[in-house]
C-alpha cells in the first residue's frame, strides 16, 4: 500500500507530559495510508453528470460500525453488492444480492443504515422517483461481525416495501439516520424534482412506521424574473449532533423556469436551515420558532419566515444536495457552491458555468449564534458536489470532485482554507462517497471513488484512506 504525507499544512500538536496542557491543537492535515480495490469492473455510465456508484449525496454508500467497514455498489453485470472488511484491512468480503440495477440513471444509488436496536444492516436501492428496493440483514449481524459468516444467507429477500409499509410510488433520495436511542429513521422525497415533499419513516427494532411528510411543495416564490407555485426542498443532509438535535440544511428547487434569468441555468435558490429537538416530529427555524410538523397540516414551506441563512437568487447555478456536518459542540456546518457574482449575474449553461467559475463556500454557525461564510479558494473545475467533514479537533475538510482535499483550522475561525491533497494519483471521475461514520471511530478520512472511463465501459472502484490528526 502507498503511504505518504500529502501537502499537510498544519503543525502537529506537541506531546505533553502527564498533567500538563497540550502545547498546541493540531490544524488540518491528511496522510495517505493506502487504498483498496472493491471491484475491477464496476458499472459505469454518466447521467446527471454523475456515476451511480459515486453520488456524494448517498447516505451511506460507505460506513463503519463496531470495527468493520461496509461498502455498496453495482457491478458490471448490474448486480447490487454489499461488502465488508475489518477496519483498516486490505481484503473485502463481498455478497452479491439478487437485485440488478434497472436503468442507466445515476440517481438510483444504494444507501445503507444500521438499526442499533437489533443490529441489522438495511439497504435501500434503485429509487429515483418510481419506487424502491429494500433489503435488511438478520438481527445481530452488525453487533457480532467476527462470528457471523458473510454470506447471502444473512440477508433477507429484496422487497418493494419496508416490510409491508409502501410509503410512496414516487420515492427518491433515501438517507438512513440513527436516532440517539438506537432507532433507525429513513429520510426520503415523495414526488419529483420541482414538485416534491420530504418525509420520514422510522424503525423501532421490529416494525417500520411512516411518520409522514414534513415539507410543502406549495406556495408562491417570486424572483425578479417571475414566479413559481411548486417546488421541492433538496436536503444537504440530515444529521443528529452529539446533543440529539436533528439538523438539515437545504436549497429550494422551483418547478417554473420563469424564475431564472436564462433557461440554461437551474432553479435552485437560497440556503436554508431547520432543526428538530424531538426526533423529527416538529421543525424549527434558526430563531427556534416551530415552522412545521411532520405528518401534520402545517409543514415547512417556502413562504415561512426565518428559514434562509444565506440568500441567493436562482441566477447563479446553486448546487443542491451538497453536504453538511456538525461539530463537537453540536454546531452546524455546510458546504454550498455556485457561480459568484464577480463572474456574472446570470449563468446561461449550468454545467459549463459551474465548471469554469464555480466556487465552494463553508457556511457555519458559531458559538455566539451568528452565521459565517467563507469562500474556499479552490476552483471547482467541475459541475459536481463537494463533501464536508470535521475531525476530532473540529478542523474542517472539503473533499472536492476528483478526490481533492482542502482543509481549514478551527483555530483560524476557518479562514485559512488551503489545498492539502490534489487527487492527481487517483484518476477519479468526479464526486466521491465519504464514510461519515469512520472519522469519529479511528480518525481516518475514508472515501470511495471510481476511475474515469468512457461510454459504458466498466472501471475500477476503490476506497482510499487518509489519517487525520490524532
What does this 3D model show about the protein?
There is one protein chain. By secondary structure, the chain is mainly β. It has a single domain, classed as Neuraminidase, CATH 2.120.10. Helices cover 3% and strands 40% of the residues. It contains 2 helices and 33 strands. It has helices at residues 350-357, 439-442, and strands at 4-5, 31-42, 62-65, 68-74, 79-86, 93-100, 110-115, 120-125, 133-136, 171-178, 184-192, 195-203, 208-213, 221-222, 227-228, 231-235, 239-240, 246-254, 268-276, 282-284, 290-293, 308-310, 323-326, 332-338, 359-365, 371-376, 387-390, 396-399, 405-408, 418-421, 433-434, 444-450, 459-467. Strands 1-2-33-32-31 form a 5-stranded antiparallel beta sheet. Strands 16, 17, 18, 19 and 22 form a 5-stranded antiparallel beta sheet that branches. A hairpin with a 5-residue loop joins strand 27 (387-390) and strand 28 (396-399). The two termini are 21 Å apart. Mean pLDDT is 94; it is low at 1-6 and 8-22.
Amino acid at each position: 500500500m502507498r503511504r505518504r504525507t500529502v501537502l499537510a499544512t498544519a503543525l502537529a500538536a506537541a506531546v505533553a507530559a502527564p498533567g500538563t496542557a497540550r502545547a498546541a491543537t493540531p490544524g488540518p492535515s491528511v496522510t495517505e495510508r493506502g487504498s483498496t480495490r472493491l471491484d475491477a469492473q464496476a458499472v459505469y455510465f454518466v447521467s446527471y453528470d454523475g456515476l451511480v456508484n459515486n453520488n456524494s449525496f448517498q447516505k451511506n454508500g460507505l460506513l463503519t460500525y463496531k470495527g468493520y467497514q461496509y461498502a455498496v455498489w453495482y457491478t458490471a453485470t448490474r448486480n447490487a453488492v454489499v461488502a465488508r472488511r475489518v477496519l483498516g484491512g486490505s481484503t473485502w468480503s463481498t455478497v452479491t444480492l439478487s437485485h440488478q440495477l434497472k436503468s442507466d440513471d445515476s440517481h438510483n444509488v444504494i444507501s445503507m443504515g444500521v438499526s442499533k436496536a437489533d443490529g441489522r444492516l438495511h439497504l435501500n436501492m434503485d429509487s429515483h422517483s418510481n419506487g424502491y428496493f429494500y433489503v435488511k440483514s438478520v438481527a445481530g449481524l452488525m453487533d457480532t461481525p467476527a462470528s457471523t459468516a458473510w454470506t447471502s444467507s444473512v440477508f433477507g429477500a429484496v422487497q418493494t416495501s419496508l416490510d409491508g409499509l409502501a410509503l410512496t410510488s414516487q420515492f427518491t433520495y433515501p438517507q438512513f439516520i440513527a436516532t440517539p436511542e438506537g432507532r433507525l429513521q429513513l429520510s426520503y422525497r415523495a414526488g419529483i424534482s420541482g414538485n416534491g415533499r420530504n418525509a420520514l419513516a422510522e424503525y423501532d427494532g421490529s416494525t417500520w412506521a411512516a411518520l409522514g411528510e414534513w415539507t410543502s411543495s406549495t406556495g408562491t416564490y417570486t424572483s425578479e424574473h417571475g414566479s413559481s407555485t411548486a417546488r421541492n426542498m433538496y436536503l444537504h443532509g440530515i444529521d443528529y449532533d452529539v446533543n440529539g438535535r436533528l439538523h438539515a440544511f437545504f436549497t429550494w428547487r422551483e418547478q417554473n423556469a420563469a424564475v431564472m434569468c436564462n433557461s440554461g441555468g437551474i432553479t435552485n435558490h437560497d440556503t436554508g436551515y431547520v432543526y428538530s429537538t424531538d426526533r423529527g416530529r416538529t421543525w424549527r427555524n434558526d430563531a427556534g420558532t416551530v415552522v412545521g410538523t411532520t405528518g401534520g397540516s402545517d409543514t415547512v414551506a417556502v413562504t415561512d419566515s426565518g428559514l434562509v441563512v444565506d440568500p441567493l437568487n436562482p441566477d447563479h447555478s446553486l448546487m443542491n444536495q451538497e453536504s453538511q456536518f456538525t461539530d463537537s459542540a453540536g454546531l452546524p456546518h455546510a458546504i454550498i457552491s455556485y457561480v459568484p457574482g464577480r463572474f456574472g449575474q446570470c449563468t446561461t449553461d449550468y454545467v459549463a458555468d459551474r465548471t469554469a467559475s464555480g466556487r465552494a463556500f463553508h457556511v457555519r454557525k458559531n458559538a455566539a449564534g451568528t452565521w459565517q461564510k467563507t469562500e474556499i479558494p479552490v476552483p471547482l473545475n467541475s459541475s459536481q458536489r463537494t463533501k464536508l467533514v470535521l475531525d476530532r479537533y473540529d478542523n474542517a475538510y472539503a473533499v472536492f470532485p476528483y478526490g481533492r482535499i482542502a482543509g481549514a483550522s478551527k483555530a483560524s475561525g476557518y479562514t485559512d482554507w488551503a489545498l492539502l491533497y490534489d487527487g492527481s494519483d487517483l484518476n477519479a471521475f468526479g464526486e466521491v462517497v465519504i464514510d461519515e461514520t469512520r472519522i469519529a471511530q479511528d480518525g481516518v478520512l475514508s472515501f470511495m471513488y471510481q476511475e474515469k472511463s468512457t461510454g459504458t465501459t466498466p472501471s475500477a472502484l476503490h476506497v482510499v484512506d487518509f489519517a487525520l490528526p490524532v
